[in-house]
Amino acid sequence: MPLVLVPTPIGNLQDITLRALEVLKGCDVVACEDTRRTLKLLNHYGIKKPLMSLHEHNEVMRLGRMREMLSEGLLVALVSDAGTPGISDPGEIVVRMAIDEGFPVDVLPGPSAAITALVMSGLGTRRFTFEGFLEGRRSFKEARLRALKDREETLVFYASPHQA
Description:
Elements lengths: L2 E3 L12 H9 L2 E4 L2 H10 L6 E3 L9 H9 L4 E4 L12 H9 L4 E3 L5 H9 L6 E6 L4 H11 L5 E5 L6
Parallel strand pairs: 1-4, 1-5, 2-3, 2-4, 6-7
Helix pairs in contact: 3-4
């Protein structure tokens, strides 16, 4: 598989799967949201691989390089800082490009902050909607919340610690 999305621990570095470690050890390059955080994880497990930053500010600019690496048959492991890449983290654009251009894509199972929070909340888990981060100005956020207020299923939102 040329592109493999590898979920990483949300908190404890030991919360990584054996398969994720196997892919990280066997890949040619690790595309990561923050090279410093990923290096900490790799160092913890004695893994040495070339790192390429791929975050929300450069994901579109990196598409050409990702395309080149996949065309060369390199195994690219894509990780985010914590959890599953592409879920409110970089990766969605790269995955779309890879699928559109016929490159194989694999996604490993692993941590997801939304699922962890949902189960831990004690709220209903049979039906839920993941809304991610509410985008835009306060008025847009309030309008979205008003549109959702009568929903019966559990709603899951992400909230940035940097925003009030």
